[in-house]
């Protein structure tokens, strides 16, 4: 299990989000055992309370289960991402990296093309079409 702390988010939030991501990406499976709070805290150079807070949050969500003597494990009911979505996401990440599009811009594109709540596709403008005369270009 690889967790890296970086950025401005609180370390407990980063740990929680990365563990959730590892499960969604099928890098952690149901019943996989996680490092102890003390071990992960030592590995990351943070206080044990920071890791405990992340683990507790994931327990409340039903993602992790902690039992005395059995340690902390991924819940059998933890949701994983369907293989097709995971494969497409990996391809998108590779393409974005290869074409020097950063993560934030890639996420912005996904948000822009994501279907709306009513199921309809968002309005879209063909990038190859010129901006209508008299209108400023839109930000992309």
Features:
mainly alpha; globular; 5 helices; single chain; 140 residues
Characterization of the model:
This protein is mostly helical and 140 residues long. 44% of the residues lie in helices and 6% in strands. The protein has 5 helices and 2 strands, in the order αααββαα. The protein has helices at 11-24, 37-44, 48-60, 83-98, 103-113, and strands spanning 64-67, 71-74. A two-stranded antiparallel ribbon has the order 1-2. A hairpin with a 3-residue loop joins strand 1 and strand 2 (71-74). Helix 1 crosses helix 3 (48-60) and helix 2 packs across helix 3 (48-60). 14% of the residues are buried. Mean pLDDT is 85; it is low at 128-137.
From the spread of the alpha carbons, the general shape counts as globular
The neighbouring-strand order within the major sheet is 1-2
Helix tally equals 5
Ranges where pLDDT stays below 50 over 5 or more residues in a row are: 128-137
The profile of the biggest β sheet is: 2 strands, antiparallel
Q: State the secondary-structure class.
A: mainly alpha
């Amino acid at each position: 299990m690889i967790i890296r702390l970086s950025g401005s988010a609180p370390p407990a939030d980063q740990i929680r989000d990365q563990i959730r991501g590892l499960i969604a990406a099928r890098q952690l499976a149901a019943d996989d055992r996680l490092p102890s709070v003390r071990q992960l805290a030592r590995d990351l150079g943070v206080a044990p309370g920071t890791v405990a807070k992340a683990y507790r949050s994931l327990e409340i969500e039903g993602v992790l289960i902690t039992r005395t003597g059995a340690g902390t494990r991924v819940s059998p009911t933890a949701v994983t991402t369907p293989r097709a979505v995971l494969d497409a996401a990996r391809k998108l990440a590779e393409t974005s990296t290869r074409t020097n599009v950063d993560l934030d811009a890639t996420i912005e594109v996904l948000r822009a093309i994501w279907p709306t709540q009513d199921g309809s596709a968002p309005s879209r403008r063909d990038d190859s079409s010129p901006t209508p005369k008299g209108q400023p270009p839109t930000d992309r």
